[in-house]
Design goal:
Elements: E1 10-14, H1 17-29, E2 32-36, E3 43-48, E4 51-57, H2 66-70, H3 83-92, E5 99-103, E6 109-112
Parallel strand pairs: 1-4
Antiparallel strand pairs: 2-3, 3-4, 5-6
């Protein structure tokens, strides 16, 4: 059955939507930000290539990553044709690589930032 599901967007709540989070994605990861802060549900859309991330305000609540909440897991996966090149780009931009590129036991190549 093909119901036309085309893509998904990550939605990240954050306590500092502009100065820390959007700025980091723009300056360090090469995304472009479009601000929708004067809307009923204020948010920022981040764009890079065919990827979109949506930032929302956490209204002062702490935001914990899945690995802290559940003991493992990630908050998002980004798909690329060249993991080595993307990891090198992030290294060159001084993005903190938590785990360098590996072949996983489930046959993926991945690195964690």
């Amino acid at each position: 059955m093909n119901n036309g599901l085309l893509m998904s967007h990550c939605v990240f709540p954050t306590p500092d939507i502009i100065l820390r989070t959007a700025k980091f994605y723009e300056q360090n990861l090469g995304f472009q930000a479009v601000h929708y802060l004067d809307t009923v549900e204020p948010h920022i859309c981040l764009y890079r290539d065919a990827t979109e991330i949506i930032l929302t305000k956490s209204n002062g609540q702490a935001v914990l990553p899945n690995r802290k909440l559940y003991g493992y897991g990630y908050d998002a996966y980004f798909i690329t044709e060249n993991q080595t090149q993307l990891q090198q780009e992030f290294n060159d931009l001084n993005v903190k690589i938590i785990r360098p590129l590996i072949d996983t036991d489930y046959n993926n190549k991945e690195f964690v930032i």
